[in-house]
Predict the 3D structure of the following.
Amino acid sequence: MASTEEIRSGLADIVNEVAGIPADDVQLDKSFTDDLDVDSLSMVEVVVAAEEQFGVKIPDDEVKNLKTVGDAVAFIENASAA
Amino acid sequence: MTAKIATATGAQHAALLGLGSYRPSRVVTNAEICEHIDSTDEWIRTRSGIIERRFSEPHETVQMMSVAASRTALERADIHPAQIDCVLVATVSHLWQTPAIAPLISAELGSTPAAAFDISAACAGFCYGVTMGADMVRSGTAKYVLVIGVERLSDITDPTDRGTAFIFADGAGAAVIGPSDVEGIGPVVWGADGEKFDFIRQKQSWIDVLALERAVMPHLQMEGNPVFRWASFEMAKVAQEALDRAGLTVDDLDVFVPHQANMRITDAMARALKLPERVVIARDIAYQGNTSAASVPLAATALLESGEAKSGQTALFIAFGAGLAYAAQVVTLP
């Protein structure tokens, strides 16, 4: 199973690919909308790419709860542990 | 006794013979849309790619726009209206429960007594019609078929709904389908998923509207993010399947004409399909908005008229929307 840092780093590459944000800026305490300027549509793209990469399912209802990078990493960690 | 019934036989191949469109006269800017919703020009552009759209004036009815688009398509196909055997009209904004608008359009064009009916497949309707028309030509049910996609979504859009007011618009597009020496309309990949019916739909039934104290138009409503997800990713797979079924790859493609739902969906689909740089991508939504069933023929006609696409080129059509209904096919541009 991937470590927290591996998930963060993989997610950072996805955010970089989808929204053109430098991967180094994608840290656990950063808010997708307020700090990284990832809008709701880009967030959908990030989620779909993350599902594919980490082999997890992130339901539409859950996406709005993923406010920070840390929220998303924690969700993916829990989902892959389940 | 069981008599031997003859089987109709048609042409071996079908093709698009002509395309036409009608753009309503009134240009509506993002600034005008923002008079009714709490939004900005910049927000609308980044979320949808829409810079402006067209709304119909009162005289630009569903019938009037359809007839105008059809006349252009018929002229370009060099087919007389009287040669048309069937008129198919894809629309969700002909606000009469019955009769369908197709017979009226047929009558005004001079195509009576062609068979005529409407297709209720929302944004996917035109691509549904192209397949049905091609099948009619190949089966001998009709020699020439007129397929129209037309909408006046401004009539059924809530101007104060922040999620939809900036998206939907009006217009018409038409195609003449007829026999061909070589195949011009590839196998369709189509379907529908009624479990997701509430992603995009009319707010209430007409019966429920009449039960209200004061009847109001049951406007379109849409769940933006789930629709975006479905359209961007699931529909890219459908588009790829249509290429596969036509026996082609993206390297054989010249033009990509997706339903003009949202520029961000078009971009995501193009990325997922890994379209080569040289493939021309329809981006008509920027100045036309999302015209549901009319968007594919409007966008394809615009590319041909501007010279960005040329007759004889290979194009991939895909349309998707309420239902959720979808259809994709590879065509040769007329």
User: Anything to note?
Assistant: The longest strand of chain B covers residues 170-180. Chain B has a mean pLDDT of 96. The CA atoms of residues 33 and 166 of chain B lie 6 Å apart. The longest helix of chain B spans residues 224-245.
